[in-house]
Amino acid sequence: MEKNNNTNNTNNVKSSEATEISSNDVTDHEDNENDSEDDIEEDGDLTKLDSEKKLNPGPLIPLKDQLEKDKDDESLRKWKEQLLGSVDLSAVGESKEPEVKILSLTIQRQGRPDLVLPLPFTESTKKSMFTLKQGNRYRLKFTFTVSKNIVSGLKYTNCVWKSGVRVDNSKTMLGTFSPRAEAYTYETKEETTPTIIFARGSYCVRTKFMDDDGKCYLDVTYYFDIAKNWPTPS
């Protein structure tokens, strides 16, 4: 188990205004054959971080055993206490596997209310989940919980396609997280949608959350649109 200070830098869940998905935000893309599942699977392999190919993590052991293992080493004991915080060890159990649940995806759009999409998605994968106005600043926020054991090397990958052509492939190491009742949040850096006319249209996104052991906690594909203007309220 490696030390990682990213846990302490992780933001707690913040309350924010949210709005339901309106019918104007949902567009059917059943006829879009360019973004096939085969294309997504093929390019999805490219989202692996280089560290995945080189890292050989040790065997998983229950959290209680990890604490007992180095209880006589004061420096390790203090570090573990700092990492675990106020975790209730009586509720951890004897599980070796951590449990990570990605609860929601929030789209934070400049000048618009936050749009919260519960995970996993229940809509058809060929429907646009939301619309972004060209030239508008936005960011994504994921909310997730960790239970049963420490999750090490949690990483986020995001691939975006337009008309079957990959236009973005981002990979971010989030860090190590201890189990706790309160949810964690991860926010992407703020970006601005393109302003050129050719950027308008439908985009296909594949998002994954994985850990150092190669366990995948979320693997979803969804669509969104970029348009000249915001959808007209019904």
What tags apply to this protein structure?
five-stranded mixed sheet; single chain; 5 helices; mainly beta; disordered N terminus; 234 residues; 39% strand; six-stranded mixed sheet
Give a short synopsis of this structure.
This protein has 234 residues and is mainly β. The protein has helices spanning 6-9, 37-44, 50-54, 63-69, 74-84, and strands spanning 18-19, 99-109, 114-118, 128-133, 137-147, 151-162, 165-177, 180-187, 191-192, 201-210, 216-227.
Q: Can you walk me through this structure?
A:
The chain has about 230 residues and is mainly beta. Helices cover about 15% and strands about 40% of the residues. It is built from five helices and eleven strands; from the N terminus they run H-E-H-H-H-H-E-E-E-E-E-E-E-E-E-E. The protein has helices at about 5-10, 35-45, 50-55, 65-70, 75-85; strands spanning about 20, 100-110, 115-120, 130-135, 135-145, 150-160, 165-175, 180-185, 190, 200-210, 215-225. The strands form two sheets. Strands 1, 2, 3, 5, 8 and 9 form a six-stranded mixed sheet that branches. The N and C termini lie far apart (about 55 Å). The relative contact order is 0.25. The model is unreliable at about 1-25 and about 30-55 (pLDDT under 50).
Element order: H for helix, E for strand: HEHHHHEEEEEEEEEE
The gyration radius over C-alpha positions equals: 20 Å
The averaged pLDDT comes out at 75
* Rough outline: elongated
Distance between the termini: 53 Å
How is the main sheet built?
Answer: 6 strands, mixed
Count every helix, treating DSSP H or I runs of 4 or more residues as helices: 5
SSE-based structural type:
mainly beta
Task: Give the total of beta strands.
Answer: 11
